[in-house]
Amino acid sequence: MARTKEFDPDAALQSALELFWRRGYEATSMADLVEHLGIGRASIYATFGNKRELYLKALDRYAETRDPAVLGELSQPGPALPAVRAVVRRFAAEAASPEERRHGCFVTNSAAELAPHDPAVARRVEISWEHVETPLYAALVRAQAQGELAEDRDPRALARMLFVLLQGLRVVGKASQDPARVKEAAEQALALLD
C-alpha cells in the first residue's frame, strides 16, 4: 500500500523557494533543504526531483506570483505614462527597501548566478524578463497613440531601456546602502519620457 505524503508539497516548494532566494543555488546544499523543509531527502527526490529540478520549480513559482503584477499595472485603461512611471517608482522603492536589499529579486539573482551556464534557467529568466518588457512596450505604444509620448520616440527602445534600468535597480539596490542611488536613477530615466 502506498504511503501518503506527510507534508504539504506546495508549502515545501514555497519554503525551498525562500531558502534558494536567500542563499542562492550553489550555497544551498541538499542537507540544507532537508533541514529547512523538515522532510526527508527521499521525499524531496520523490516529490520534486533533484536539487536542480527543485530550484527550477521554485523559480517557476516565483515568476508565477511576481510577473503578472506588472502586466496588471500597465494594462489598466486610461493614461499609460502614469502607470509606467508608477511601475518604475515601485521597482525603485522595492530595490531600496531593507527586505529587497537582503534578498534581491530571485529572477535577477538566478540570471547572475546560473543563467550564463544553465540553459533551463536562462530560458526561465528570459521568459520572466519578457513578462516585464512586453507590457512596458505595450504601455508606451498606447501612450504614444494617446498623445502622451512624442511621435519621434521609439517605444521599443524606451521599453528596453526601462527594463534594463529595472534590472539594474534590483542589482544596485541589493548591494548599495544608499537608497537615494536607485531612486534618483529611476527619476532620471523617467525624465526621458517627457
UniProtKB/TrEMBL annotation:
This is TetR/AcrR family transcriptional regulator. Residues 29-48 bind DNA. Residues 6-66 form the HTH tetR-type domain. InterPro entries: Homeodomain-like_sf, HTH_TetR, Tet_transcr_reg_TetR-rel_C_sf, TetR_C. Keywords: DNA-binding, Transcription, Transcription regulation. The keyword DNA-binding applies. It comes from Streptomyces cuspidosporus.
